[in-house]
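User: I'm preparing a small set of examples for a lab meeting where we compare how different chains pack in three dimensions. I only have the primary sequence for this one, and I'd like the structure in token form so I can line it up with the others. Please keep the answer compact; I'll paste it straight into my notes.
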Amino acid sequence: MKCWKLVAFLLCQVSGLKYEAAPECSGDVTGAKIFECDEQAADADCAKKYTVAGGDVHIQCAISGPNCLAVGPFCKKTSAASMTCSGLSDCESKGWKKTWTSGTATKYSVALGTHVLLGYVKENGEMSHAWYFKTPDSWKTTHPYNLQHQGDIIEAIRASDGTKYEGELVSDYSNYGGGCECGKGSGHWGRICLRSKTPPGGGWKCHGKGGAVPKEIDFPYIRGYGRGNGCGSSSLSFYNWNSGPKFCGDYKVVIMTN
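Assistant: Understood. Below is the structure token output for the 258-residue chain.
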């Protein structure tokens, strides 16, 4: 028996669980080497890590005494295939939970987990332009409608087909009302949108041409007034705020988590 298979067998025996029934891993993997938890700092970030136990078996890190150690439980690494979905009911069947829709108070009905999904949803559950990504710490602190000039580098994954794009997630209730290519401002219109992780020469500016991401990256551009809870003239991140398709007549903004 290979070493990693022996490790998996012993972990299963101790936990009383089959590996197939193990929970999905939480946080980020420490690296490619086995049992690297002890190389992590013994602080709050320890519990946000998991390590390779061998093969496709992983185990969560946790504080044990003065150290960060691989104390479990063992877990399955999250795969993109297990999280992709095409509609509200399909997403819920994959473990996603609806935690907020536009028009309701700007607070989460379900605490945010390791990932969040952002998109548009109709009353019948039809979803459009839904993307998911690892939950930024800033979003765990408060609803994104309450954040100002917040930028987080994320890997966004389109929920329908797994297309990936690494960019800067902008969460900002004060931005002069422009597109995602705009820099910091002090107006009353807010936005949640995605733009290139690398600013253009001279920095981000409101030139009115859009193009913050490639056109095929149909990540939402959520536009709301002040710290309100509406959908506004929301569109897609590629466009300037007033030139793209509008969704809020038929859809609401939805945030889901898992």
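A couple of notes for your slides: Residues 3-75 form one domain. Residues 105 and 237 are 24 Å apart (CA to CA).

User: Perfect, thanks.
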